[in-house]
Amino acid sequence: MSTPFTPPGAPPQAAPILEATAIHKSFGDHHVLKGVSLSVQAGEVVTLIGASGSGKSTFLRCMNLLEMPEDGQLGVAGHSFAFKGASRAPKDAQLAALRANIGMVFQHFNLFPHMTVLQNIIEGPVQVQGKRPDEAKALAMTLLGKVGLAEKADQHPGRLSGGQKQRVAIARALAMQPAVMLFDEPTSALDPELVGEVLAVIRELAADGMTMVLVTHEMAFAAHVSDRIGFMRDGVMAEIGPAEDIMHRPKDPKLVSFLERFHAARQG
Ligand code: ADP
Ligand code: MG
């Protein structure tokens, strides 16, 4: 067995907690993901940026197995699977093991309207994980405290603002105690004055060491919260690197013009 070279004094490189390798996904004859790879270390925050239609959501959905890749490999917290043709579709138990370690927050919150906030949060832990209701409730209350909504536990989602609903959706995903959280444009559906409270919760999760992959158009936020930023273009990871480098020293000409459009919009 060979040992990879580690420079003297460098911290030992741990195995990535999330590793997607050469993921391919087509819809009909539309080849949407053309071999996308991403490796995320525990505690790392990676933001994916790129034009609408470049495949960001499809890539996140593949990592959560909401979409089944046709080819490639996915590893999450020690569980891994190689996708190759329909005959090798993962078995239910494999799917469950991969999914159990990934939480996802969407643009639209999809809370159950007939359940209280607390019931929304304990539903997964009790029904899917078989947690005892009193344990699930205690965890839910801790998480509601974290997102600043402990006093809303017994309200129905219809009584909450969009920002509050999204914070409940984040608490609901965290209640499954995933190893990695994925966020797909979590603030895009919100009124501008409600964006900040959701970003603040995400920023706090990052500070707590939560491993996260985000898709967002909030560039200042992305620059601040991300360890690395990846730029997706036409179904490939065109460029990825430290947030500083991507924001200030972009190389891909399409990334340069993408960032210029954001700067222009902010000044305009
Ligand atoms: P992004 O999130 O970067 O805007 P998406 O991953 O949503 O991009 O979409 C990438 C491409 O895949 C788009 O052309 C989109 O129309 C297509 N696409 C996404 N989901 C589906 C689907 N369920 N069926 C058919 N085409 C899809
Ligand atoms: Mg999208």
Plain-language structure description:
With 268 residues, the protein is an alpha/beta fold. Helix content is 37%, strand content 24%. It contains 9 helices and 10 strands. The chain has helices spanning 56-63, 92-100, 117-127, 133-146, 162-174, 192-207, 219-225, 243-248, 253-267; strands at residues 18-27, 30-40, 45-49, 71-76, 79-84, 102-105, 180-184, 211-215, 228-233, 236-242. The strands form 2 sheets. A 6-stranded mixed sheet has the order 6-7-8-3-9-10, with helices on both faces. Strands 2-1-4-5 form a 4-stranded antiparallel sheet, covered by helices on one side. Strand 4 (71-76) and strand 5 (79-84) form a beta hairpin. The protein is globular and about 50 Å long. The chain starts with 17 loop residues before the first strand and ends with a helix. The mean pLDDT is 92. Adenosine-5'-diphosphate is lined by residues 27, 30, 32, 50, 52-58.
